Amino acid sequence: MSLTRLGLRYPLIVAPMAGGPSTPKLTAISSNTGALGSIGAAYLTPNQIKIAADEVKKNTQKPFAINLFVPSNTKDPTPNQIHIAKEELKPYEQQLHVKIPDIQGPFDHDFDQQVEAVLDARPSVFSFCFGLLPKEYIKKAHDEGILVVGTATTVDEAILLCKNNVDAIVLQGVEAGGHRGIFDVQAEDPQISTFNLLNDCLKNKMLCKVPLIAAGGIMNSNHIKKMLNAGASAVQMGTAFLTCTEAGTSAPYRRALSKESRDTELTRVFSGRIARGIKNKFLNEMKTKNILSFPAQNTLTRFLRNASVQNDSEDYLSLWSGTGEGTLWTGSAEDLIKDLFDNVPNKH
């Protein structure tokens, strides 16, 4: 991917943060300011993807990205497994005064229809994580002039993406907040730092020819300079933007993020996939409980998470956050982007 082709002023992707934080307003203002804004569309229906993209286009003529989760192709849990997992949540139903309804598969969105909605929306960039995008979709995207960006957590994953004909690769270090882009949903986390992953990929003859985007633990200008100087074509930042004015982050989530030092941990308890979030009551107490596979666990706990917001409580929320420390920005995304790059040489 050529950043010159996108016409970005800054080598920055504002990360897709599905489930609420990514809003059309945040996407548009990020792009208008000179970064690449992103729609986190993983949990959106095809019609919702269209609505979100149309809203972004109303507010910017600049490039933006739409991001999806590649299906994990795991078997849906059995009714008995769902029953056992649901029983584990009984105490929280009482505490939150909410009733978790019965759930049944299929739990994955219709990915083919989501992809078609993205292609119809014609963003400048179609990004994805959790594996490989079928090659026919990459070809369709390229035929529409859409750049395709995958996500890797290891050198081997990055090589597979490169062979899959992506235009650029987001290298997601273990410091990153939110879901880990690991291809194998059942694998343990490789726990490779962003800096080491970038360096390892740049040593590979195939990968050093592909634009590499560093993601994970990048919170300030010094972090950005370190990654760009090491050879990254751009950086991707999410946590730093969670408390911006335009983000859809809930009030209890914002409170949890307001601490200068945020104690995070890798966990499967909220969704069934490994993700990094701030420790809270639910994360700590569910470690030894029965956890369904992704995305069934995500569907099951969604009712508790929604009730937690309604009760103005951070105890049962998936408080996705990277490991970076320091007080987060609470003004506009535009001012944050300008502040971040005030002292960063424009190399691209």
TrEMBL record:
It comes from Acrasis kona. Keywords: Flavoprotein, FMN, Monooxygenase, Oxidoreductase. Its cofactor is FMN. One of its GO terms (molecular function) is nitronate monooxygenase activity. Pfam families: NMO. Belongs to the nitronate monooxygenase family. NMO class I subfamily. PANTHER family: NITRONATE MONOOXYGENASE-RELATED. This is Nitronate monooxygenase. CDD domains: NPD_like. The keyword RNA-binding does not apply.
